[in-house]
Design goal:
The protein is an all-alpha fold and 402 residues long. The chain has helices at residues 4-17, 22-29, 33-40, 51-58, 62-67, 72-114, 120-134, 136-139, 142-168, 173-195, 200-203, 206-229, 234-253, 261-264, 267-286, 292-314, 319-347, 370-401. The longest helix is centred in the first third of the chain and has 43 residues, at 72-114.
């Protein structure tokens, strides 16, 4: 509280503004006139149990009473809050009235013209869609206003699509519904995940949840599209989609993937094994009638990244020697892979006019013949990778000696 005289002056001023005498004021508080007189003359403070009753009689807040001054800012905020509540109530009543008029008019019009309720349900679903953007936000708390409005809008949109599909007699609703969910999730799901109360185990895996949810919706979209068109491409599209998403997005998401402890230290190995398996399954699915050559060719191509992984991750030596091993393996692969691929094709009955020899017919004085030109380029590439491997090994030896 302020000093006694300021406090007493404030009580006296408020009492006189309300037209109360000391006796009337004392009677309302069930105290004596002399007690009120002592308060107003600054000789004593009232008992703390009387503060709430004094505020009610003087029509002021406890803050105003304790500070012995009018809280104009607090009153302004309270007035603005009351005004906001009043505007919100009027806003809701206006929309209730408009929706009621539209609903009633369409109900009567549909019955009068069509002798039944047909397109009325489309109007009703359209009103629900509008209400999700105009009325629903006024009922939601601030934290949930955005996600709640978005969820209500999507639900109302799906209902509108379902009613239109039933009214038109089509079978396109499942495709449209999954497409809407996929599109809205692609744009708004990251914002929803930021405010969604997730368990502790999932709170740190929001990126993984986002990619997983969108991938599941995309595969579901493939499924409903395939069923609606009567095609047989679902398995192929789903498999290659998972392969592409894993190839591009799985490496940065491996940190959020809940792997067992032994596999947690070999995430690169897990990723490469998963992608290799998907690639081989995809080729097997696409070429199931004659899968031998494509599978062997794919396995031959996979030896390059597997060699990189083995050299860069599992060689028991320093970083420079690991890089040297990776460059050396790349040079060896460039040398042997074309020869091995041609032999695989020839064993399967393919006719190759100029099969790639084990020793490239290089001649750096001849750049006009097509075969010799290719051999020259391949040999330069091999020498380049071997030179990089040698440089990395020299740097590794130099750093180790230092």
């Amino acid at each position: 509280m302020e000093n006694k005289k300021t406090f007493g002056s404030f009580i006296c001023q408020r009492r006189k503004e309300l037209g109360l005498t000391q006796r009337e004021f004392a009677q309302r508080l069930f105290v004596t006139d002399s007690a009120v007189s002592k308060w107003e003359r600054g000789l004593a403070y009232p008992d703390i149990t009387l503060l709430q009753s004094i505020c009610q009689v003087l029509q002021c807040s406890e803050k105003e009473l304790l500070s012995a001054s009018e809280d104009t800012e607090g009153r302004r905020i309270a007035q603005l809050a009351q005004k906001h509540l009043r505007l919100t109530r009027n806003y809701r009543l206006t929309h209730y009235l408009l929706f009621s008029i539209i609903t009633g008019a369409c109900f009567i019009g549909n019955l009068a013209v069509g002798h039944g309720l047909t397109w009325f349900w489309i109007v009703l679903a359209g009103e629900a869609l509008t209400a999700s953007l105009t009325l629903l936000p006024t009922f939601l708390p601030d934290r949930w206003r955005g996600p709640g409005t978005l969820g209500g809008f999507v639900a109302a949109l799906l209902i509108l699509l379902l009613v239109c599909c039933l009214y038109g007699g089509g079978r396109w609703f499942p495709v449209a519904a999954v497409g809407v969910l996929f599109g809205f999730g692609l744009v708004f799901l990251p914002l929803v995940l930021r405010v969604l109360p997730l368990p502790e185990r999932l709170a740190h895996r929001k990126a993984l949840l986002y990619v997983g949810a969108e991938l599941a919706l995309l595969i579901l979209l493939y499924g409903v599209c395939c069923l609606s068109t009567g095609g047989s491409w679902f398995a192929s599209a789903a498999l290659w989609t998972v392969f592409g998403v894993g190839l591009c997005l799985l490496p940065p998401l491996m940190k959020q993937l809940p792997l067992p402890e032994p596999l947690g230290r070999h995430k690169a190995l897990v990723w490469l094994a998963f992608q290799s398996l998907l690639l081989l399954l995809g080729i097997l699915w696409e070429c199931w009638r004659a899968p031998a050559v494509p599978l062997i060719a794919a396995a031959l191509c996979l030896t390059l990244p597997w060699g990189w992984l083995g050299a860069l991750r599992y060689l028991p030596t320093g970083r420079w020697f690991r890089a040297a091993g990776a460059f050396a393996w790349t040079g060896v692969w460039v040398w042997l892979a074309p020869w091995a691929l041609d032999r695989i094709m020839m064993c399967n009955g393919a006719v190759i006019s100029h099969p790639w020899p084990l020793i490239p017919p290089a001649d750096f004085t001849n750049w006009t013949d097509y075969t010799v030109f290719n051999a020259n380029v391949v040999l330069l590439i091999i020498f380049g990778f071997l030179l990089l491997a040698l440089l990395c090994a020299v740097v590794g030896i130099y750093r180790r000696r230092r």
